[in-house]
Write a structure and sequence with these properties.
2 copies of one chain form a homodimer. Chain A is built from 11 helices and 13 strands. Chain A is an alpha/beta fold. Chain A has 2 domains: about 20-135 and about 320-330, ATPase, nucleotide binding domain (Nucleotidyltransferase, domain 5, 2-Layer Sandwich); about 145-315, 2-Layer Sandwich (Nucleotidyltransferase, domain 5). At the A-B interface, strand 10 and helix 8 of A face strand 10 and helix 8 of B.
Chain lengths: ~325, ~325
């Protein structure tokens, strides 16, 4: 299904058995060099540029990939290829990424595949960030023992990925938008502009907006105090955790509300697909998954049609490197 | 994936190229003899027994199949096999059907596959009624031009079936429960006992219960008058249509409410799976699909994450015979 982008067809390629992976996130660019067994031989992490445009982001990605290569003692030209897990609308066939609104100046389209291929001297494939992270968990992480799973990445937004009968299911290219399944018709406004989406209650950005709204209305909370104290520009998952540990009431309330929405939406997805497992990842998912496993599965149980055999629910096990490892697997599909 | 049940392994089998199909519904048992091109050569319809138990239902099924065979001038022993689209929990591997609560005395388990195989002298395969109807539309009906689709059967309940990349997706055997995707957390009570399911607003049985409740509270409606006049035991889809045509206000309101729930739930399914098409079938779906296509797609559009290219939405084209034809295809998978 994927095509590869290569600027010089004559060059020898794949003289090692190593693959590169790049996880292109809104705050960081994580790269990894991965061997055939899934082991990471080198990695690097750079902050995502907050100004400029797609070309600047591509440049930072190339730099971070070269740095990971140096750590693994390999040159970019000698990789089998470099996979990219990208936000926005990532077209696997053309390597063009559009509407990546979390990235600077990326409202339009940019030929990320071709640009990186030229910069790195190797083939490049582009995939959806959440989908490749789901595939990483499927092949190498918490989903290894299952043949079908739904990946739920609970972070700034709530993204999803699907593996059915051992293969990624992409639909017409945009499958997996579990965060925009409706959990409450006519409900809260979602950052996407629609109403009642799971993400409107569970996404970190939506949770922060709600916390800010309530704080401005006079509800007491330490969330923003902690944010300033730790010099964070936003309510990171770490700040949410600290506030929760401090017994902050609003924090507990908003996380409970997020868990309710997650449990409801995940149950809907399970009723439709009946997968063997659900893998919970993402910044908040990894931080709170174990701690909230019981309330989450209880919430799911309320809505599961076949409630006597719920799917396994596991926290993603590859952590921060899952996205980059998954991206490298675009050259193993 | 399916196994077949045959009591006499020595007998010659499949001496014709014809397949039998039985749609086992709560009110009627529809049978059909289908040729390799999907053409129906004979059919019969019997009322489903309303008393007795599974053995009586199986007997009526066998009688109806023999009658269809007589119409097609073939004997049951000469069929390649007979497929059954069954409600309840239909185990494709064992041919056992459990918890078919719309059928008399069928709270437990019954070996429907083996029983019918013995009665008919041919192989029998059991599938889920809604899934096989979806496959019929995929192979021979409104879904022919697509490679992936979600079938939505809007009738007494709301059932669903999935075809992904040309193949049925059954999950662990219970996929497709689109009617029990949640459209409103904490919302209306569903006949399944849970809250806020799509079926709680859109299922015919739930709509009837709500109409009755409002009527008893004094809301004016001709629904029940029409039901008695036409000597129906319940508010059939035909009664709903008559009342709508008579300008009955409550009828219009409850159908609008059903359409809202359908649009919301279908959009959630599309956001998750991104299929090429949605096929709307079932008693109410076939009766109201064309008439309500515009409000339905408008309602969907409110919640579609990729709203610039919605899936095609088509009304099922095989009508009442779709279930039996789809069941016959269990011998073509």
């Amino acid at each position: 299904m994927s095509l590869a982008f290569q600027t010089d067809a004559h060059r020898l390629r794949g003289v090692t058995d190593l693959r590169g992976g790049i996880d292109l996130g809104g705050t960081k660019i994580q790269t990894a060099i991965v061997d055939p067994g899934g082991k990471v031989l080198g990695e690097a992490r750079h902050p995502t540029p907050i100004s400029g445009g797609p070309a600047d982001v591509a440049q930072t990605m190339a730099d971070a990939m070269r740095e990971a290569c140096a750590a693994a003692d390999v040159s970019t030209e000698d990789l089998i290829g470099v996979g990219v897990g990208s936000p926005g609308d990532a077209d696997e066939k053309t390597g063009v990424v559009s509407s990546a609104r979390n990235l600077p100046g990326w409202e339009g389209s940019f030929p990320l595949g071709n640009t990186l291929s030229e910069a790195l001297g190797t083939k490049v494939r582009i995939g959806n960030d959440v989908q490749v992270a789901t595939e990483a968990e499927f092949h190498l992480g918490a989903g290894r023992e299952f043949s079908s799973l739904v990946g739920v990445f609970w972070g700034t937004g709530v993204g999803g990925g699907l593996v059915l009968d051992g293969k990624p299911w992409l639909g017409r290219g945009a499958a997996g938008e579990i965060g925009h399944m409706v959990v409450k018709r006519g409900g809260a406004k979602c950052p996407c502009g629609r109403k009642g989406c799971m993400e409107a209650y569970a996404g970190r950005a939506a949770m922060e907006a709600e916390a800010r709204r309530q704080h401005e209305e006079g509800v007491k909370t330490d969330l923003f105090k902690l944010m300033h104290k730790h010099e964070k520009p936003r309510l990171t998952s770490g700040i949410w955790e600290r506030a929760l540990d401090h017994g902050d009431h609003l924090t507990a309330k908003l996380i409970d509300r997020a868990i309710e929405a997650l449990g409801t939406g995940i149950a809907s997805a399970v009723n439709l697909l009946d997968p063997e497992a659900v893998i919970l990842g993402g910044g908040l998912g990894i931080r709170f998954g174990d701690r909230y496993m019981e309330p989450l599965t209880k919430e799911m149980a309320k809505h599961l049609f076949v409630d006597e055999r719920p799917p396994a629910v596991r926290v993603a096990s590859l952590g921060d490197l899952g996205g980059a490892i998954g991206a490298s697997l675009l050259f193993a599909r």
